[in-house]
Specification:
By secondary structure, this protein is α/β, with parallel strands linked by helices. It has 4 domains: 8-133, Globin-like (Orthogonal Bundle); 166-273, PAS domain (Beta-Lactamase); 283-442, Alpha-Beta Plaits; 457-693, TIM Barrel (Alpha-Beta Barrel). It has 25 helices and 21 strands. The strands form 4 sheets. Strands 13-14-16-17-18-19-20-21 form an 8-stranded mixed β-barrel, surrounded by 4 helices. A 5-stranded antiparallel sheet has the order 2-1-5-4-3, with helices on both faces. Strand 20 (670-673), helix 24 and strand 21 (692-693) form a beta-alpha-beta unit. It is elongated and about 140 Å long.
Amino acid sequence: MSAEPDGPEDRLRRFATIWSRALFPVTATSITRPDFERRLLPLARQLRAALDERVFVAAGSEAVGESLVAAHCTEPEALSRTLDVVDAYLVLYCGADGDSGEREELRTRCSRIQHAVAAGFARALRERTLVEQEAIARAALEARGTVAEALHASEARFRAVFHGAAIGIAIADLHGTVLEANDALIRMFGGLEQHLRGRNVAEWTHPDDSPHVWKLYEELVRGDREHYRVEKAFYRPDGTVLWTNLTVSLLRDADGTPQYQLALMEDTTERRLLNLRLRYEATHDALTGLPNRTLFFERLEKALAAGEGARFGLCYLDLDGFKTVNDSLGHAAGDRLLVEVADRLQACATAPGEMVARLGGDEFVALTTGPDTEREVDELAGRIMNALATPIRVEGRELTVRGSIGIVEGPAAERGAAEVLRSADITMYRAKHAGGNRYELADPEADARAITRHGLTTALPVALERGEFFIEYQPLVHLGDGSVRGAEALVRWLHPQHGVISPDRFIPLAEHTGLIVPLGRWVLEQSVRQARVWEARTGAAQAAGPLRVNVNLSPCQLTHPGLVSDTVEILERAGLAPDSLCLEVTESALIGADDDLLKPLRRLAEMGVDIALDDFGTGYSNLANLRRLPVSVLKLDRAFTQGMQHFPADPVDLKIIEGIVSLAHSLDLAVTVEGVETGAQADQLRELGCDTAQGWYYARPGPPDRLHELALADAR
């Protein structure tokens, strides 16, 4: 089966070609270079297999080094050139493509292969030397001069390989005394041979040694293992630290008796320092130098995983009004402010078990651990607030820094890190909404309400698509004759888990997310359609005219450009006359309204749609403003009727209502009263001149058919 162009087999052959070209000039052989290349091809496959192994086994690579000696590649430069080729081309031609992490792993495995090849080469060359020495000894009587020359050449080749290798090599006896060290190893240790030769390896302990390092060493000198490989640190004579990839192999004599230790060392100090630097940059904030979110989560998870009796305390800080600094002074000034805040926070958390981190933007966290965090976290929050109290000077200006802090404290191992941080975040926003520049302690009930609020917010968009909303209608009753004149449409949410949710819980969420516009359009469409159904059913039986439906408009809907066109389209599609619709707008939404905001309402009023000013009396009640508003109905808030539930009624409330009714009628405005719950209230409101009313005295909000039944009963 032929390999595809530039496939793995082609790349392997390229590697073998480069290897043969480097090695052939220094190899004593009678075969041609192509034949020599074919002889190296199986060895190249062994190296590729070793590179592909997930668990490195040195035997295969050592066999390659032994095979080179068997192929008469024993000249001084043979091993050096082989190691250079493996280092430069093995990963390039024989390694699988992958991300940077996988390439780094291949480079590490390639270094191990070089060590193993060198070890196998050195062992085979030494064994070959011993074999040659034995042969020379047997022929000593016949060719003493030839034996001496061959021994000298063999020893010279070994010495050339030993001293010319790019990696550090040392030979020690079984007691650990260093007998030989090559030039590369001497350079690693500062360049002085006396610091190596004659020393015992047991002296080279380091505090960062893994516990199993010396156990492996003992097993090797006993002959229980042939080699081991570890990452080990050494102290240089000047006190600096040398980090190495260390491979130690056991050398046996011809009878298999352990005789020497062979150590191969690769200097990894620069690589380790680079990794430490990358780790620091990955876990610390570039602007402030504080630990970042990644490192903070590691510390928090460690604190939460502590044993029984351990506690933690966390302060979640957000600067109040930081966006104003960025917008007014620029981001450079904002960054300097953050650096100064970070320095002050770090000075607040210097006790053991305390840390400060920057999560991002102007959000910081402070963590404390220990048995008494309930007191310590409160003191830590106090120190932070005091540290922020002093103004910070930026670009010649003194900036007052305020912050809101959410505190979470409790026993470890009860909650996860994400849950703790979410609770702290919720609590921090509770402190911010309470005015800021303060700290609050986490409250599980408040957290639950916030989480429920968030869940409702995320569920709102799909709730409209799934048809989870429905409308109830509360009758509007004429106070003069008690007839039903219409109803106010009140939307409800039938949530799959929470049941029926009242509008005061989800309407603010819909306004915040912008969903109030499509939801309001749906309510208007359904209500208008229902009013048309009432009109068709009652017909001439309703002496006072068709039943009118009142629909609430939110401030967001008022500013929506499609308000007028949507209303016209909905009325025309349903076939309902505009005077059967009343749009209710809260007084607060129209306070200070300009002509652009009032223009859509004026157009609707000119069409015949009634506009009601809802919750009148709860805002500033700018009575002079009524003249310019396109309203035809005033709806008094239920606050005016609460004082009338007791007998006798508060005379002040009666005078206020009487005055409002008189003013409204003088402006040709009808008056509707909300919250009527007793017959006494209804009678008094009738005497005061109010036109219509709604409340539980007449009926609670209910299905549309009930309103139709009430209207027919009045007609009869």
